[in-house]
Design goal:
The protein is built from eleven helices and 30 strands. The chain is α+β, with helices and mostly antiparallel strands. It folds into three domains: about 45-265, Thrombin, subunit H (Beta Barrel); about 280-375, PDZ domain (Pdz3 Domain), CATH 2.30.42.10; about 395-500 and about 510-565, N-terminal domain of MutM-like DNA repair proteins, CATH 3.20.190. Strands 24, 25, 26, 27, 28, 29 and 30 form a seven-stranded antiparallel sheet that branches. A six-stranded antiparallel barrel has the order 3-4-5-8-7-6. A hairpin with a 2-residue loop joins strand 24 and strand 25 (about 400-405). The radius of gyration is 28 Å and the shape is globular. The N and C termini lie far apart (about 60 Å). It holds the Pfam family Trypsin_2. GO terms for molecular function: serine-type endopeptidase activity. This is PDZ domain-containing protein.
Length: about 575
C-alpha cells in the first residue's frame, strides 16, 4: 500500500504566512558527513540489535492487513475501476478500557474486503471497518471471529500494545510491519529527527507528525512505531521520496491516535479535527504591525479571510489580529511554544481539541484587545481534498455530464500534475476559494456526450456551471431539482396544450414539450438545449454509454428527502 507520500501534486497546506499552497520542500543535507557519523552508525547498529531483542514479545501484536479495493472512476462517476489488492500492517492497541485493531485509512480506502493475519498464523480472518479517519489517515477494524483473539494452543495470550508519550528528538524508535521484499515481519530502527505540524498526504490536513530516519516502505503503512520502553508512540504512514532525500519517514504520533480513538468513543464515528477556517498572514513587518494598531511587544497574526462555513465566521473579521488561543500567545510567525525550547505552528493547539469544544481567542480589533469565545467546528472546503470514501455525485442532462470538483476528480482528469495542468479557474477555487454556505459546491460540466441534443457542444469540458435558467447554481442537488422541475413544467405545458387542442377538435400538430434549458458557464460560455431534445436524448445516451441512471444515488436520495419534507410541510399547513 502507499507507504510514500506522492510528491508531484501540490498539497493543500497553509504555509508559514497563511498562504494556501504547496508546503516548502524538504531536502536531505548534502556535503561531507559530520565527524560523529561513525558514532551514529554504531549507535544505530546497537539500536537494531536492542530493538530485535526487546520487541520480540510484542511483535505478535502486529498483524498483516490484506485489502481488496474498488475505487470509483471520477471521470466516469457511474463506473468503478478494476479492483486491486494491497497488503499493509496493523496492530492491536489498548486504549480507553478496550482493545483496538488499527491500521492506516489509505490501507482500506474504498475497500470491498478486508482480511487480517496474525504473525505465525496461517489463517486470514475477515475484518470489518469500524471507522475511517481520512484526515489523520487512521482506520479502526474489528474481527468478529473469536478465534482471532484467542491464543494458539500452548502459547501465551496475544499481546496488546500501550500508547506511549510523545518522544523527544534523537530518541531511538523501531518500525515494525510487513513491508515489500518479503512475507515475514520486519523491524527497522532509527531516531526521531523532527516533530512538527506536517501535511498528511492522504487527507490533505496539517497535523502533528514525527519525522524519523528509519525506512518506511510500501507495506509498512499502519504498523506500530515503538520506543525503547516497547510502547507504541505512533503509526507509520508515509515517506518523503525523491532523488535528494533518503530515509525520511513520517509517523502519526500518539496524541493524534488518541484523538481519533476518543472521537470514536464520544461520537460513534469520526467527526474530524476542528479548524478556525481562516487565512492568515505573518506580522513580521514592523510597518504592518503599526498599521493594524499593535503596540510595542504585542505579537500575533493577521486574519486575511474567514470561511463563511466556519463557526468563527460570526466572531472573527478580516483585519483582526489573532493574539492568543486559549491563553497561549501566538508569535508573529504563527508559532506557539512547544515543550522545552521548541516552537510549533499554532494550528496544533486547535487540532488538539474536538469539534464542539469551546475555545477562547485573544483578538486585537481597531487597537482594542478583546477576548472572544467560539465553538470549534470543521469548516467545509469549496473543493474538497477527498470524498471520505463516498462515490462521486453526477447528473446526466441530455448528453451533459455534471459532477462536483474535488481533488480526486482533478487528479483523475489531469494526473498527478493537476496543480499546474488543471484550468486556472478551478485551481483558484481549490487554493483560495471559500464556500459562501456549508452546502456550496463547485458544479462542473465534466464532459458532453455526443448526441443530437448536444450537437455543437462536444468540445466543452471541465468548466464550472454558474447559472441554470438564470438561477445561480449552489450545488449539484439544487441543479438536479431545478432541471427536474423545468422538465416537468415543460411536459405539463405540452400535455395541457394537447388537451386544449383535443377539446377544440383541432388538427393534431405534433406539439411536444417546449422551451429551453440554458446553462451559463465560466468564461461566459453558454449551452442551450431544447427540452424536447433532452427528454428524447437522455435515455438514448444512457443506453449507448451503459449509464444505469441519470443521477447518482446520493443526489436521488437528497431530492426524495426534499420532496418528502415539502409534502409533510404542506400536510401540516392544511391541518
Amino acid at each position: 500500500m502507499r507507504g510514500a507520500a506522492p510528491a508531484p501534486a501540490p498539497a493543500r497546506s497553509t504555509g508559514g504566512n497563511g498562504q494556501v499552497g504547496p508546503p516548502p520542500p524538504r531536502k536531505a543535507p548534502h556535503g561531507p558527513a559530520p565527524p560523529a557519523a561513525d558514532e551514529a552508525v554504531e549507535e544505530l547498529e546497537e539500536l537494531d540489535e536492542e530493538a530485535g531483542q526487546q520487541l520480540a514479545p510484542y511483535m505478535d501484536a502486529v498483524v498483516k492487513v490484506y485489502c481488496m479495493h474498488t475505487e470509483p472512476n471520477f471521470s466516469l462517476p457511474w463506473q468503478r475501476k478494476r479492483q486491486y489488492s494491497s497488503s499493509s500492517s496493523g496492530f492491536v492497541l489498548a486504549y480507553g478500557g478496550r482493545r483496538w485493531l488499527l491500521t492506516n485509512a489509505h490501507s482500506v480506502d474504498y475497500h470491498t474486503q478486508v482480511k487480517v493475519k496474525r504473525r505465525g498464523d496461517d489463517r486470514k480472518y475477515l475484518a470489518r471497518v469500524l471507522s475511517v479517519g481520512v484526515d489523520c489517515d487512521i482506520a479502526a477494524l474489528e474481527v468478529d471471529d473469536p478465534a482471532f483473539w484467542e491464543p494458539s494452543p500452548g502459547a501465551p495470550p496475544p499481546p496488546v500494545l500501550d500508547l506511549g508519550p510523545l518522544p523527544r528528538l534523537q530518541d531511538g524508535v523501531a518500525v515494525v510491519g510487513y513491508p515489500v521484499g518479503g512475507d515475514t515481519i520486519s523491524v527497522t530502527a532509527g531516531v526521531v529527527s523532527r516533530i512538527e505540524v506536517t501535511d498528511y498526504s492522504h487527507g490533505s490536513t496539517d497535523l502533528l507528525a514525527i519525522q524519523i530516519d528509519a525506512a518506511i516502505n510500501s507495506g509498512n503503512s499502519g504498523g506500530p512505531v515503538f520506543n525503547r520502553a516497547c510502547q507504541c508512540v505512533g503509526i507509520a504512514f508515509q515517506a518523503l521520496v525523491g532523488s535528494d532525500v533518503e530515509n525520511v519517514g513520517y509517523v502519526i504520533p500518539a496524541p493524534v491516535v488518541a484523538h481519533f480513538l476518543t472521537d470514536y468513543m464520544r461520537t460513534g464515528g469520526f467527526s474530524g479535527f476542528p479548524a478556525l477556517g481562516v487565512q492568515w498572514q505573518r506580522l513580521e513587518s514592523e510597518a504592518l504591525r503599526r498599521a493594524v494598531g499593535m503596540a510595542a511587544g504585542q505579537k500575533g497574526v493577521l486574519v486575511r479571510g474567514v470561511n463563511p462555513s466556519s463557526a468563527v465566521a460570526g466572531v472573527l473579521r478580516p483585519d483582526d489580529v489573532l493574539l492568543s488561543f486559549d491563553g497561549t500567545p501566538i508569535s508573529n510567525d504563527g508559532t506557539v511554544p512547544f515543550r522545552t525550547g521548541e516552537r510549533i505552528a499554532f494550528s496544533h493547539l486547535i487540532t488538539s481539541k474536538f469539534v464542539g469544544d469551546v475555545a477562547r481567542l485573544g483578538v486585537l480589533r481597531g487597537g482594542q484587545e478583546l477576548e472572544l469565545s467560539v465553538t470549534l467546528s470543521k469548516p467545509t472546503s469549496l473543493v474538497p481534498p477527498h470524498l471520505s470514501n463516498r462515490d462521486p455525485p453526477f447528473l446526466i442532462v441530455g448528453g451533459l455530464v455534471f459532477t462536483t470538483a474535488s481533488e480526486p476528480y482533478l487528479q483523475s482528469e489531469y494526473g498527478s500534475d493537476y496543480g499546474s495542468d488543471a484550468p486556472v479557474k478551478l485551481l483558484d477555487r481549490l487554493y483560495h476559494g471559500f464556500p459562501s454556505a456549508a452546502d456550496e459546491e463547485v458544479v462542473v460540466l465534466s464532459q458532453v456526450l455526443a448526441c443530437d441534443a448536444t450537437l455543437g457542444y462536444e468540445d466543452v469540458y471541465n468548466v464550472q456551471l454558474l447559472r441554470f435558467n438564470g438561477a445561480p447554481v449552489r450545488n449539484l442537488v439544487q441543479l438536479a431539482g431545478l432541471v427536474r422541475a423545468a422538465l416537468a413544467q415543460a411536459e405539463a405545458g405540452a400535455q395541457a396544450q394537447e388537451a386544449q387542442d383535443a377539446g377544440a377538435q383541432a388538427q393534431p400538430t405534433g406539439t411536444q414539450a417546449g422551451g429551453f434549458l440554458r446553462f451559463d458557464l465560466e468564461y461566459n460560455e453558454v449551452v442551450v438545449l431544447e427540452v424536447a431534445d433532452v427528454l428524447r436524448a437522455t435515455p438514448e445516451v444512457m443506453r449507448s454509454h451503459s449509464i444505469p441512471t441519470d443521477m447518482s444515488a446520493g443526489i436521488r436520495a437528497a431530492l426524495l428527502a426534499q420532496e418528502q419534507g415539502q409534502g409533510q410541510g404542506a400536510a401540516s399547513g392544511k391541518a
